[in-house]
Amino acid sequence: QVQLVESGGGSVQAGGSLRLSCAASGRSFREYIMGWFRQAPGKEREFVALITWSGGSISFADSVKGRFTISRDGAKKVVYLQMNRLEPEDTAVYYCAAGLGYGRHSYEYDYWGQGTQVTVSS
Questions:
Q1: How far is CA 95 from each of CA 100, 111, 119, rounded to the nearest angstrom?
Q2: How far is CA 70 from CA 4, 9, 27, 82, in A?
Q3: Could you tell me which residues come within 8 angstroms of residue 65 by beta carbon, excluding any fewer than 6 positions away?
Q4: Residue 101 has pLDDT above 90, yes or no
Q5: What is the rounded distance in angstroms from the CA atom of residue 87 to the CA atom of residue 4?
Q6: How many CA atoms lie within 13 A of 68 on its CB side?
Q7: Alpha-carbon distances of 98 from 14, 28, 40, 66, 116, rounded to whole Å
Q8: How many C-beta neighbours within 10 Å does residue 31 have?
């Protein structure tokens, strides 16, 4: 199995930046697609971004495209989500996920981190 631990969440003012980290461990973790999802109160969990460990495939949700960047460090086994020009609408619990498929739906992912809170004030 794969274990995922997120870090880097916090509270920022609108227009600010945060970088989230997802540390991966476990056997055969490189087989998995790595994704970021978020869930705001009263809303469904939504896709944010994904990346393969090779870095050859990257995808973003339209709501964050141009503001967020996803990257990975294979040697450190860490996936990053750099969030710039944050907006109050970005406020949510952010989750790192790993799946054997490839897609934008939460059901395509098998392992999840505990989540990290991101709060953006206006």
A1: 17, 10, 14
A2: 16, 15, 23, 6
A3: none
A4: no
A5: 26
A6: 25
A7: 29, 11, 20, 23, 16
A8: 11
Closest CA to 78 of 57, 108, 51, 109: 51
Read off the pLDDT band of 27 (50, 70, 90).
confident
For 68, the token pair is 């967020």
Q: What is the pLDDT of residues 38-71, one digit of tens each?
A: 999 999 999 999 999 888 899 999 999 999 999 9
Calpha distance 56→89 (Å, rounded):
29
Q: Which residues pair with 121 in a beta bridge?
A: 13
Enter the DSSP assignment of 90. G
